[in-house]
Design brief:
The chain is an alpha/beta fold. It is built from 20 helices and 22 strands. The longest helix is centred in the first third of the chain and has 31 residues.
């Protein structure tokens, strides 16, 4: 349903959409005036239509007795038709807002009145009703007349809008819409009906030749989007209305718009529109996600619902990028209780308020807690008895953790061990660790500590005999997550550059936050315990190409307006990421975007002892010494070791 701020509607019954008129037939003085205006307009049309029917029936010379008959029948026909119009909601809509559903309701009201006339004619032998031909003519003329009046008022409003000013006297922006499909048509319709948006659609552009030289809501479809470059149509802004378009095509159009120096935005994602999270008119800037054009992931929602619905779910790191998105998606599957565990009070407050804003009575419990606090976490498990745990709490910033290896080990490896032990002790059904592709043959501390966490879960699953199903999910870089490369590039572009890239050939996998979280939920339904799931990350992308695309999205030219500067690989950084270890066997799953890896688990007690020994010894060690201790636990780890003279005091381990 599309509503303007003043209560208009385009679809569905009118009554529920008018907050004042739903309380009483006439509401306040403004509503009463509107009802009078509508009543006067409808009354005039009905009288004129009925009289014209008599004139046509008697060739514009009705006998005197028929003129008297007209007035006698009008005494009951007019109030009857007005009553039907009221019952069908036509007194509760604005004159200037009109659409096909309104026309249907007007025709139904006219048909109901004609049915009564026909019934009276047959019941009285024509004594107290117009002739049958007049009844039919009245129905046709009534319908055409009432619809025409409403169309006139709508066209009058659109003519006023066509002068380039909205209801507040502010000049509207002239907008070209790329995409003449359903989304583009709905956007144009809402812009035309809502003057408060300040957007005046003047042209459509579309790749489909069938639509060229046609009109959508009276707006011409001029041709391919490349025609915008010729400047023949004056526009202030361009809106992408093709949320399912492939990234390659979006990149081509963005390049054209940049060269034409046109401002551009896009409608929300297809997923948001389908879910009803946003309206098509809530346009936003074009983001890198739109240029990548990753396919929408199809999830087995029935299986995810079976995992979550009616159960108590715990999410650690609930205020982080992945943790918060997991909370958003989990809440859609109606858990009995959703426990938000986060040690940063600012982040947990933000996600709590967001979720409550979406669902005021959401069954969420915000818990400020550190996973390293044994007493606190034990108390939470005793109090709430979570049935599924999504463990997203972690230190993940690669360069920072290179100088803080003990803290990364303590939080990522030991923290996971502590939490997994609690899950086993309290009979949690499933425990899902959020891991990373950097855990494969790691060259940095963050990846190494995540790999140690994976190994512990597999050992615990194999040797502890617990009914809890432990599993891990690996994925690569997530677009827009905190600390990722994309926000860094955006800040550098906003500052005028340069944009710093470590190496011209460095590549990474990327996926969106909602896609990653959705596939984590999907993986959780498939685990039987001891698996490591790897999400299909698509194609490797060159970071340098990503930087160029972000610069172009800002309306600037790479290496002309904004310099791309190569700084060299950072400590612990790889040129490319891998998907699995050589010792891991790949087992397919029933979801095309999820792969399962199974390896030989280590012996639990000896590995647990090794972890505790490193924890005790490494607390007072230097960064390099800690890395060497981790390498003893993880031979495939190739640490970056810095000489003492190269170490900077600001980055010394604390």
């Amino acid at each position: 349903m599309i509503n303007s701020n003043n209560g208009s509607q385009d679809h569905g019954p009118s009554a529920p959409d008018s907050p004042t008129l739903s309380r009483s037939p006439f509401g306040g003085s403004v509503e009463y005036t509107k009802v009078l205006l509508l009543g006067a307009a409808y009354t005039g049309v009905i009288i004129a239509a009925h009289w014209l029917a008599y004139l046509i029936r008697f060739e514009f010379h009705p006998p005197g007795d028929q003129q008297i008959h007209f007035w006698l029948t009008l005494r009951w026909a007019l109030p009857s038709e007005l009553a039907f119009l009221f019952l069908f909601g036509q007194f509760r809509s604005l004159l200037s807002y009109f659409s096909l559903p309104d026309a249907n309701r007007i025709i139904l009201a006219c048909a109901a009145t004609s049915s009564i006339s026909m019934t009276i004619w047959y019941a009285t032998g024509g004594a107290h009703a117009p002739a049958r031909s007049i009844v039919i003519l009245s129905f046709l003329l009534d319908s055409v007349g009432l619809v025409s009046v409403r169309v006139f008022f709508r066209r009058l409003r659109e003519w006023q809008r066509g002068n380039g000013r909205n209801g507040h006297g502010i000049v509207s922006r002239r907008v070209a819409i790329i995409g003449a499909g359903d989304v583009g048509a709905n956007l144009a319709k809402e812009c035309l009906s809502r003057r408060d948006l300040g957007m005046l659609p003047v042209a459509f552009y579309d790749d489909d030749p069938v639509k060229w030289n046609m009109r959508v809501h009276g707006i011409p479809v001029l041709g391919r989007p490349e025609l915008l470059a010729d400047g023949k149509v004056s526009v202030d802004e361009v809106v992408f209305a093709m949320p399912s378009a492939v990234g390659k095509r979006v990149r081509e159009i963005v390049q054209v718009l940049n060269e034409a120096k046109l401002k551009f935005e896009t409608v929300p994602s297809l997923e948001q529109l389908v879910n009803g999270d946003v309206r098509v008119s809530q346009i936003r800037p074009v983001e890198l996600e739109d240029l990548l054009g990753r396919e929408t992931v199809s999830l087995a929602t029935d299986r995810i619902s079976g995992l979550i619905k009616g159960r108590t779910i715990m999410v650690t790191g609930a205020g982080g990028s992945i943790g918060s998105e997991l909370c958003r998606q989990i809440l859609e599957y109606l858990p009995r209780q959703l426990l938000l565990v986060e040690r940063c009070e600012v982040q947990i407050f933000q996600i709590e308020q967001e979720l409550l804003g979406r669902t005021p009575h959401a069954p969420i419990v915000a818990l400020v807690a550190d996973i390293m606090d044994d007493l606190r976490m034990r108390g939470l498990f005793e109090r709430f008895s979570p049935e599924v745990v999504f463990h997203a709490a972690a230190h993940k910033h690669v360069p920072m953790m290179e100088s803080q290896p003990y803290e990364a080990f303590r939080n990522n490896a030991i923290g996971t061990k502590k939490l997994a032990n609690l899950a086993a002790k309290f009979g949690v059904d499933r425990f899902i660790l959020i891991s990373t592709d950097k855990a494969i043959n790691p060259t940095n501390v963050m990846g190494a500590t995540k790999r140690l966490a994976e190994i512990y879960l597999q050992a615990l699953q194999r040797h502890n005999g617990t009914p809890t199903k432990f599993m891990a999910v690996r994925f690569g870089n997530v677009l827009g997550s905190s600390g990722s490369v994309i926000p860094t590039f955006k800040r550098q572009i906003a500052a005028g550059g340069p944009v710093t890239v470590t190496h011209p050939d460095v590549t990474r996998y990327f996926m969106t936050i909602p896609e990653a979280a959705g596939l984590v939920l999907q993986s959780a339904t498939q685990g039987q315990g001891g698996e490591i799931f790897v999400l299909d990350m698509g194609k490797l992308l060159k970071i340098a190409d990503v930087a160029r695309q972000l610069i172009e999205l800002s309306g600037l030219k790479p290496d002309v307006d904004i310099e791309i500067k190569y700084t060299g690989l950072r400590p612990g950084e790889k040129l490319f990421e891998e998907l699995n270890l050589a010792a891991e066997d790949t087992i397919p799953t029933d979801h095309p975007k999820v792969m399962r890896f199974v390896g030989v688990p280590r012996e639990l007690e000896s590995f647990r002892g090794d972890l505790l020994q490193v924890q005790d010894r490494a607390v007072a060690m230097s960064a390099d010494q800690v890395k060497l201790e981790l390498q003893k636990l993880l031979p495939e780890y190739k640490p970056y070791l810095s000489e003492a003279k190269e170490s900077r005091p600001a980055l010394q381990q604390v």
